[in-house]
Write a structure and sequence with these properties.
With 809 residues, the chain is of the alpha/beta class. Helix content is 34%, strand content 19%. The protein is globular and about 100 Å long. Bound molecules: ligand ANZ. The site of ligand ANZ has 18 residues, from strand 11 and strand 15.
């Protein structure tokens, strides 16, 4: 005899145990390539904080998708692991004074407990943690692969330094001048660091976005971050000498309007160009810019500069133009020199006004009214217009002239066509402890020597004082630097910096294909079989971080012949944020954080899952609402009682509704419209409760379709309905997704045209078997029709069933 009350606690405990026992979520070992789905979440970093309900949203979405495809007969890979190295874990360790390893392992345990409670169908036999030697051995292997291909290199450069974390950061990890991890101030420092040559892949990283189904905004973020600019470099001769200053411009059409040339304070000529008279001013200026951040220099409204007394010659019109040093010009972009065109560039205009420089207009908007053509409307920065004051190019449109002027300059030897990128090489060394050691040693002259692959992993020692000091904590670790002298006679020490954690996460999705491989990071066969990831879910904040780095790694592996695909994530979705009940971001500060374990304790995991999917569109932010979650709980209680209305006969109306439900839920899951799928379940239950009957087979099919959303309650009800002797192996999750039959889907609603005095005035939607009296009532109360009747007397009302209404007034 089954229980009459829906007791989620006992049901969930029972099935968690049963599923484990029968290894329900085990990944098939050799998938059918045509029918495989690799469904992946961005793996979390276990930094000490527990997960809140917002984090669960994406995991529930992918779990539904995984369960759905399994029922559809696909071989599914749905793994989980830990992005366990890195600053969050290390900063937490510093705060608590506990070593990051036990801290991290404790966090992992806590996360796992939470994930398990939600009923997520991960195959835990594939779990990976980036902080374990058998994982980071391969992170180091990737470093060596890039080093061998000259895609990893060391150079001295001006780099971002976080004062708080006491380490360098990659450009992507500086958000609005602040550290991505701790929000601390970032300054520029000259340091020798390791880089990955991601810029080599800039064009492919843009072009291949065509191949993937990603949110448009994420693609645009990447394209803008890579920042491809097509332009030219123009040679300006300095002071009639042989010295040349090259300036990069995307607007060669404005070259006759150049009235000054601006060098960045870091330009190699900056401290050499000043004439005697200006030298002191220039030195002072260059010194003063050193304390400014890049952000201050570029966003500062008040552009500053200093005159050098030198001049250059514009090779097009041979005019002499003054050379300035300006800190709004950055050394890291183009050539570090800009040709100033005040009439057509906002910054140059501001600068020229401030220092009283010439402004020469060279592009005119033909269509503008006469009054708009005057100088007051400068700068004119648009590209629709024709050239004036530009010698032989006068009269050409901007777009015609770009090519012609560049060709002319090129044939005369002072112009070179050039494509520039905003993207910089990825700085991967960190002066911190909790990361994979870089597998490099140095000889006496500090020349790098790479560690042999067979000597990997270079182990990260545990007994290290990890408080950040500005140099890697590994510098003074004696044992870490003891090297096999026989094998590496030249090596005197190891590289002490560790790798950026984003290196660890750039390849973890390959490891999941073959997580226990001791000989390779993953076998070619396994990667071919499972890769690429079909469905990937994770935060939009990674659009130029992890999502770009992982694409870069994938392309390198593709070029090296390890894999047969060159994009890692075919379709990508970002979950929206779940806000607190007060519509604010969940945070300890506001006291509005909701713990999934508490919700599960009170209402059950199935309720939490269905509610989170019901809250609104997956990719949008939405506030938590306690009364709606109670409504979802009541829905499940009603599902629990459905077995009470089972009859022997198939209910035809329910059959039609059920087929409609199967069709809608299938397409909704495939397109991540979980909220409308849940609404459809609710409509269905309203319908069958009204009908009062449902056959066993109909209830079974309903439960299968519901099972990806509510895996526990559906398995419980399944066991009760099922007559087979071996219930254990008869989990609902091992069944087949029901097919729907289009011919059985009859619409219960129908649209009926309404004529007034012979003219079609509107239509009205009604249940197919509404009686005439009710039709009349509905028609009269319909606003669109009421205005044609007004207060006139209805002389005739004719209803042709299911077809048309005719009213004579
Ligand atoms: C002259 C000019 C005239 C420019 C005009 C623009 C408009 P994007 O599109 O972002 O690549 N520039 C070049 N190097 C720079 C540097 N190191 N620091 C600051 N600015 C620099 O921008 C290219 C434009 O940015 C270039 O084209 C140059 O200004 C400026 F009506 O040259 B232009």
């Amino acid at each position: 005899m089954s229980k009459q009350v829906y007791d989620h606690k006992s049901i969930e405990a029972k099935f968690k145990e049963l599923w484990n026992k029968i290894d329900l979520h085990k990944t098939p070992s050799s998938p059918n390539k045509k029918y495989k789905k690799y469904v992946l979440d961005m793996f979390p970093y276990p930094s000490g904080k527990a997960m809140h309900v917002g984090h669960a949203e994406g995991y529930i979405g992918t779990d539904i998708v995984s369960r759905y495809y399994r029922l559809k007969g696909f071989d599914v890979l749905h793994p989980m692991g830990w992005d366990a190295f890195g600053l969050p874990a290390e900063n937490f360790a510093i705060k608590t004074g506990v070593h990051p390893r036990p801290n991290t392992d404790k966090s992992i345990e806590m996360f796992k407990k939470q994930l398990d409670a939600i009923g997520l169908s991960y195959d835990w036999s594939r779990e990976v943690g980036t902080h374990t030697p058998d994982y980071y051995k391969w992170t180091q292997w990737f470093f060596l692969l890039l080093y061998k291909k000259e895609l990893a290199y060391k150079k001295k450069a001006s780099v971002n330094w976080c004062e708080n974390c006491k380490t360098v950061l990659a450009n992507e990890q500086v958000i609005d001048g602040k550290c991505e991890r701790c929000d601390g101030e970032v300054i520029q420092k000259d340091m020798e660091q390791w880089f990955f040559r991601i810029t080599e892949y800039a064009d492919r990283l843009i072009n291949d976005l065509k191949k993937v189904d990603w949110p448009e905004s994420t693609k645009i973020n990447q394209i803008n971050w890579i920042g491809r600019s097509v332009g030219v470099e123009i040679d300006f001769k300095l002071n009639e000498s042989d010295k040349i200053v090259k300036a990069f411009t995307t607007r060669v059409d404005t070259v006759y309007g150049v009235t000054y040339l601006a060098l960045s304070p870091e330009h190699p000529l900056a401290d050499k160009v000043a004439t005697q008279e200006y030298k002191a001013d220039v030195d002072k200026y260059i010194n003063s810019t050193k304390s400014k951040t890049e952000l201050e220099r570029t966003s500062d409204k008040n552009k500053t500069g200093v005159l050098t007394g030198s001049y250059v010659i514009n090779p097009f019109n041979k005019k002499k133009i003054p050379v300035w040093i300006c800190d709004y010009v950055l050394m890291g972009y183009g050539t570090g020199a800009v040709m100033g065109v005040p009439a057509h560039d906002e910054r140059d205009f501001e600068f020229a006004k401030k220092y009283n420089l010439d402004i020469v207009k060279v592009v005119e908007n033909k269509k503008a009214k006469e009054s708009d053509k005057c100088e007051d409307n400068l700068p004119y920065t648009h590209k629709d217009g024709v050239l004036i004051n530009s010698d032989i190019f006068n009269g050409l449109t901007v777009s015609e002239s770009l090519e012609k002027i560049a060709d002319y300059g090129e044939s005369n030897g002072f112009v070179k066509k050039k494509i520039n990128y905003k993207l910089r090489d990825w700085l991967i060394s960190r002066q911190r402890y909790w990361g994979a050691p870089i597998p490099i040693m140095y000889d006496k002259e500090s020349n790098p020597i790479s560690v042999d692959i067979e000597d990997l992993p270079v182990i990260l020692p545990d007994d290290v004082e990890f408080n950040p000091t500005g140099v890697s904590p590994l510098v003074d670790h004696v044992e870490f630097h003891s090297i096999d002298k026989k094998k590496y006679p030249e090596a005197v020490k190891r590289e002490s910096d560790t790798m950026d954690t984003f290196v660890d996460s750039s390849w973890y999705f390959f490891r999941f294909c073959d997580p226990n491989n001791e000989k390779e990071f993953a076998s070619e066969n396994k990667m071919k079989a499972w890769g690429p990831v079909d469905v990937y879910v994770g935060g939009a904040e990674h659009s130029v971080l992890h999502l770009m780095y992982a694409r870069f790694f994938t392309k390198v592996l593709y070029d090296e012949g390890y894999i047969d695909f060159d994009e890692p994530f075919i379709s990508l979705r970002h979950p929206g944020m779940i806000l607190g009940e007060d519509s604010r971001k969940m945070s300890k500060r506001w006291g509005n954080v909701i713990d999934p374990l508490e919700v599960i304790e009170q209402m059950g995991a199935d309720t939490l899952r269905m509610y989170e999917m019901f809250m609104g569109p997956f990719d949008q932010s939405k506030p938590w609402n306690t009364s709606t979650i109670q409504g979802v709980r009541r829905f499940l209680e009603r599902v629990y009682k459905l077995k009470d209305i089972i009859t022997d006969n198939e209910n035809n109306n329910a059959e039609s509704e059920l087929n409609k439900l199967i069709k809608k839920v299938s397409s909704d899951i495939e397109s991540f419209k979980f909220n409308t799928a849940v609404a459809e379940f609710m409509k269905f239950i309203n319908f069958v409760e009204k009908e009062g009957s449902l056959s066993n087979s109909q209830l079974q099919r309903f439960l299968i379709v519901l099972s990806p959303f509510a895996p526990f309650i559906t398995d419980e009800l399944w066991q009760e309905l099922c007559t087979s002797a071996s219930k254990e192996n008869n989990s609902i999750h091992l069944q087949k997704w029901p097919e729907y039959d289009e011919s059985k889907i009859k619409d219960s609603k129908i649209k009926i045209g309404v004529q007034v005095n012979g003219k079609l005035r509107s239509d009205i939607e009604l249940d197919i078997d509404t009686e005439e009296e009710k039709v009349k009532e509905a028609v009269i109360n319909d606003q669109a029709i009421a205005k044609w009747i007004e207060d006139k007397e209805i002389k005739k009302f004719i209803y042709i069933k299911g077809k048309i209404v005719n009213i004579v007034v």
